[in-house]
Give the backbone structure.
Amino acid sequence: MSPSRSISTQNELRQARSSVRFCYLCGQSVVAGEYDSALASVNKDHVPPKKIFSASDRVNPLILNTHYSCNHGWSLADSLFGELFALYNEREFTEEKPPILETQEFSHKATGEQFDAITGVDIKQLLCRILRGFHAALYGEFLGKGTEISISLQFPSVSFEDGIIAEGLHPMHSEVAWKLYNSRLSNNCDRVEIYNSKCKYICVWDKLDNGMVCCLFSISIYEWEKMVDLRLVPESCCVGLLMPKTGIPDGAAVVNGIELPRPLIPIYNPFRD
Ligand SMILES: [Zn+2]
């Protein structure tokens, strides 16, 4: 078994930052004189954004170089994402500094139950950015714009107009979670564990039946699997697939087919005990 890639220690984080010599958002070089002047200057980006984490958890962050024009437009989105975790990051709101995240009441047509739904934050879009950063740091490769990314989020999206759940867990969620759970327990996955272990990412590579290469991943931020509404979904953690056209990176962990006995109840959270 090849040793898995891991990024968590200070050394590994430093190494990742210095070896990634391209902007993880656009793929162009960050070396002076090697990129378009239209991209302005080079600055740095915390991946994921530090606004998510409490001051005491902002240790061992992953910092990558990027272009100013590639990352400067994300501040509001980062703040919204950070507010999702207000319970964990000790964000305090006052009259002068009220929350900017908006909630709206949702009445489920099928059951008549009431829910508070969050509006105005595109979690998948924010996750795609984090995935690009982790992929760059783990494999030294840019996750090209043409890469298909499929995310099964544990938070359903709702249609206020129709009163229906527009998108729940993906039908493949439990299968992907099961493979990741096996890979994690058999130490056969690549991983990023940062921000005082409050952000954990695991991934393993596999071939689909149609021969396409994909990277199965799961990401946990402050145990957000516990933030799900159990009336709508089982305890689950975000999983997904990346399908880069460049194939399996050198040294990446690949699914080895070794499986534990299947439990009676499907697993939706690869990080569960
Ligand atoms: Zn860039």
